Structure formats: structure tokens, C-alpha cells
Amino acid sequence: MVARRDGLVEFLNLNTGEIVRQLVCPDKKGKFVGLSCPSSGSKGVFVCTADDGKLLHWSSESENSEASAPEVTVQLAKPISAAKLEPRELRLAYGGKENELKLWDIDAKKVAWSAKNVRL
Q1: What is the pLDDT of residues 53-71, one digit of tens each?
Q2: CA torsion 25→84→111→79, rounded to 10°?
């Protein structure tokens, strides 16, 4: 999986180098900070960008080689410096400078846990 500066996410066949699927991040601003492809049996692909705080979700069931827009877009608190998906429970940990660490529940579409930034 490769995220491009122009907002295109491509899935490559590592044996042939062929692009097998493309996803489009509409109105992408800033850089990608989290890019996750859960294991088979999980729900979809998630992409999170820094400047606009968008969490974008594509279903793995709608796989095709044509570029496709996200099925779900959620606005998270910003700015986001890092994001990581926990694929079994479908929770996204994210946070950034002046943005407290949060666990976002993908299915419930709400913050499941939050902590304040600690200044040293």
C-alpha cells in the first residue's frame, strides 16, 4: 500500500509491481499520518490525514482496480501528528501537538477514551 502526495492510495502486487486497487482521498490537505489495511476478516481500509483531521473508510468488500472515493468520512479533532489502527476492535489511536490522545471507536463513531497531553 502506497500513499501519494496527490491523495491517491495504491495497492501494489509485490510480485508483479502491478497496481491492483486505487483509492482517492478527496480534498486532501497535508500529509498522511496513518494508513492501515486490516487483516482479512476485518472491516476495510482506513486513511487519516494530518491537517484536516479526516478519517476515511473504504470497505474491503468493494475492492476493484478503479479509483474509488471513501464510503465513510469522519471529522476528527485536529491537528493529527500520528494515527494507528487496532484492527481487532477497530479502534483508532490518534493525537497531535495540542491535541490529546484519543481512541476512536470506528463502529460506534465516537471517542471511546481520551487523555490530556502531558507537558514536560
Answers
A1: 888 888 766 555 566 778 7
A2: -60
Residue 79 lies in a domain: yes
Q: Cα 114–117–120 angle (5° rounding)? A: 155
What pTM, to 2 d.p., does this model score? 0.77
CA atoms of 14 and 111, how far apart (whole Å) = 36
Range of the domain at 41: 2-115
Here the CATH number for the domain that contains residue 35 is 2.130.10.10
pLDDT tens track for 66-102? 667 787 888 998 889 999 988 778 889 999 888 889 9
Q: Could you list the beta-strand ranges (E) of the chain.
A: 2-3, 8-12, 19-24, 32-36, 45-49, 54-58, 67-68, 72-75, 82-86, 91-96, 99-105, 110-115
Domain count, the chain: 1
